[in-house]
Amino acid sequence: MANEAENLPAEKDSVITSTEGGNKVVLKRKITLVNGITIIVGTIIGSGIFVSPAGVFLYTKSVGSSLVIWTLSGILSTLGALCYAELGTCITRSGGDYAYLLVAFGPLVGFLRLWMALLIIRPTTQAIVALTFAQYAVKPFFPECEPPDNAVRLLAAVCLCFLTAINCISTKWAMKVQNVFTLAKLTALVSIILAGIVFIATEESENFENAWEGDYALSSLAYAFYSGLFAFGGWNYLNFVTEELENPYKNLPRAIWIAMPMVTGIYVFVNMAYFAVVPRHDMLASIAVAVNFGNRMFGVVAWLVPIFVALSCFGGVNGILFTSARLFSTGAQEGHLPAWFSLVHVRRQTPIPALIFTCATSILTLFCADVVALINYFSQILWLSVAACVAGLLWLRVTKPNMPRPIRVNLALPIIFLTCCLVLVLLPSFSEPLNLIIGLGITLSGVPVYYVCVVWNSKNKRSRNSLMAMIERGCQILFNAAFVDCHHDRKNDREMSDMQTSIVDEKNVHH
Q: Residue 432: which residues within 8 A CB-CB, separation 6 or more?
């Protein structure tokens, strides 16, 4: 493969370095500040704002408390994003939560986070957004009834495969898709807000009468928060690609400060528009709230609403695919996943094997078509891992006080955010503990996998060399791929080299 790589012309922004193990590809920083904002906005505004309003209202039964939950969900997500800004600028490598837990608590905890992402978090998130895309895309063809489940699943699978192909072909193409579809979803949401303002100014809405009557049981409020926070999911996704972000010390926090207030404001106003126009019984009858809104407000052009919603979800799937593949590639570089996950195309610099695996696991998850059940199932595990990352931030403050921190948030922020995360995880467990038990069981099942497949294999390399070498060789030939030289840029970057030393020291302590 080394000889083949030498004979291939590299693109002008592609660098191939020679090492003792053969030629490796150096990833270039292609993600600009605007791209970073669109990754955050485009990933957050996916299916959530079109699905979660029904979920929030289902559990609260109250217009007023629903709007409060939407506002608090935005504030909580912004607090989390600020905590992650500190983590992302002191641990400047791709991988997000996985990289932070790896540095803070060692390889076992990092591997368990990767295991959760591999089996639960990423496939479930992508399946939810793809199913919502398909639900809205086929809605115009079934105006009087619900579309067939098999048709929805098939279209969701086509969406995943198509976007995987785009991401395999070019990172720049993937970013262009993200930019265009982020603009489309913002256009749709602004149209909904403007229509809602017109309705409130000219009509009366029964929904705002007795707005605070509802269900205030703690478990109901926690599940309502899950639906609201699911709509804000993606605020930490830029942290998964920091090695490809231009000037991450400045652009990461800037992207957060621009994107999060924008999304929070849009979400609150969109929900006010929904409640002003759509009757309560219609909110509870179908997750397609935006379609009901469009049918009542846009008349003959109401068919545009499901199309715009589908485009929004389409862009959301693209953002999740893009970041998921980078997470698995980082895990492979650490030896926690098979090495072929870290292979990238020698010219296009795209992690093709990781992208294909991400697509395949998401398609398998499509067989579970209950969107609300999927949200409740993975939310507790997701927020448990987020809580662990923020605990890691506090732990690093104690154990590595001299660690370079270009951004240092007030100590109160991570403490408040960690407390909220633990409350969100534990509250529903008092009435419905099964979801948390299943999630913890799947997470802890990674412990024997870690010791057998990572620790034991690292000590008995001869037992796996033949099989792994065969798979790696096959992927290299099939996808014209090589391994990433993840240390090249850091070697020439003074700030990066300091951070790399901290990571190496942490590994030595744990090993």
A: 219
